[in-house]
Design brief:
The protein has two domains: 200 residues, Rossmann fold (3-Layer(aba) Sandwich), CATH 3.40.50; 55 residues, no CATH class. 43% of the residues lie in helices and 14% in strands. It has eleven helices and seven strands.
Length: 270
C-alpha cells in the first residue's frame, strides 16, 4: 500500500471523493468546495497521481488497497462515495468489496462497464491541443483561443460548452494534474481498458441509494454506459445533462452541485 496525499475539508458526515484520469485531489474542488461547509470531504491523490508518487508498475486493484487503508487511517466506518470517471469505477469496486461501509454512491461520468466513442486522434488534434492548452494556461478563458484553437483541439471531446468558465477550470486544475500523472498510472489504466473491465453482473450487491450523472455528448464514457449502470443498480437515480461532455462538472458546475446536494438531502444518506 502507498500512503496517499490527501486533502480534507470541512466537518460532518464523510464523503470520499475520488478523481479521474488524469486527475488529482485538486480537480475535485468543484465538488469539495461546495460540500465542505456541511460535510467532511476527503479527496486523495490516487497512487501515481498528484503528490502520491510511486516507483514501478502497479495494477488498478492496488488503488483499492490504498483507499481501504485510507479509510482505516481516518477511522471511517461508513461514508458516502463520490467518484468522477475512473474514480467512479474505483468507488464501485470499493462498494462491491464491502457494501456495509457505504451508505450512498455518486457516479460522475462513469460506468460499471465503461465504453467510449472517441474518434481516432490525429497529429492535428495533438498540435491544436498543445497550443491551445499553453495559451489557455497563460491566459485562461480567452475567447480568441477558445474559438480559434480550443474548439479544434481534443478539448472538443472533453467539453461541449466552450465557455470561459470551463476553460478556467482546465487552466487552473487540469494542466497540473496532467503533468503529475505518472507513466505507471497510464500503464495501469491502459491494461484495465485492454481487459474490457466490467462489474455489471455484481451490481445487485449494492442496495443503498445511488446517483448517476452523465453528459449527453460524453465521448470518453458514454451516457449510454452510465444509463446501463443505472438499470443494474436497484436503488438509483439517473440524470443526463444535455449538450455536455465528459467534464460536465466544469461546464455546468452550479447545476451539478445543486443536484448532488438535493439528492443527499432527499435520501438523507447523511
Amino acid at each position: 500500500m502507498v500512503k496517499l496525499n490527501v486533502e480534507v475539508k470541512g466537518e460532518g458526515y464523510p464523503i470520499l471523493c475520488l478523481h479521474g484520469h488524469p486527475g488529482s485531489s485538486r480537480t475535485m474542488s468543484v465538488f469539495t468546495d461546495h460540500l465542505c461547509p456541511k460535510y467532511q470531504t476527503i479527496a486523495p491523490d490516487l497512487r501515481g497521481y498528484g503528490k502520491s508518487r510511486v516507483t514501478g508498475s502497479f495494477d488498478m486493484k492496488d488503488h483499492l488497497d490504498d483507499l481501504q487503508n485510507l479509510l482505516d487511517q481516518y477511522e471511517i466506518d461508513r461514508c458516502v462515495l463520490l467518484g468522477w470517471s475512473l474514480g467512479g469505477i474505483l468507488a464501485l469496486e470499493l462498494a462491491l468489496a464491502n457494501p456495509d461501509k457505504f451508505i450512498g454512491l455518486i457516479l460522475v461520468a462513469s460506468a460499471a462497464y465503461p465504453r467510449g466513442s472517441h474518434p481516432k486522434v490525429t497529429w492535428q488534434d495533438l498540435a491544436y491541443t498543445g497550443i491551445a492548452g499553453i495559451i489557455n494556461y497563460i491566459k485562461p478563458g480567452w475567447s480568441w483561443n477558445i474559438n480559434h484553437l480550443g474548439k479544434r483541439s481534443l478539448f472538443r471531446y472533453l467539453i461541449n460548452r466552450h465557455t470561459p468558465q470551463a476553460y478556467n477550470y482546465l487552466a487552473k486544475e487540469a494542466v497540473l494534474a496532467y503533468w503529475q500523472t505518472s507513466a505507471s498510472a497510464n500503464r495501469a489504466l491502459s491494461k484495465a481498458i485492454a481487459n474490457r473491465y466490467s462489474c455489471l453482473d455484481s451490481l445487485s450487491k449494492i442496495d443503498f441509494p445511488c446517483l448517476i450523472l452523465s453528459g449527453e455528448k460524453d465521448r470518453h464514457i458514454t451516457a449510454e454506459s452510465s444509463a446501463e449502470t443505472a438499470k443494474y443498480l436497484t436503488n438509483s437515480q439517473l440524470i443526463c445533462y444535455p449538450n455536455t461532455a465528459h467534464l460536465f462538472p466544469w461546464e455546468i458546475p452550479e447545476k451539478v452541485r445543486d443536484d448532488i446536494s438535493r439528492w443527499l438531502d432527499q435520501f438523507r444518506v447523511c
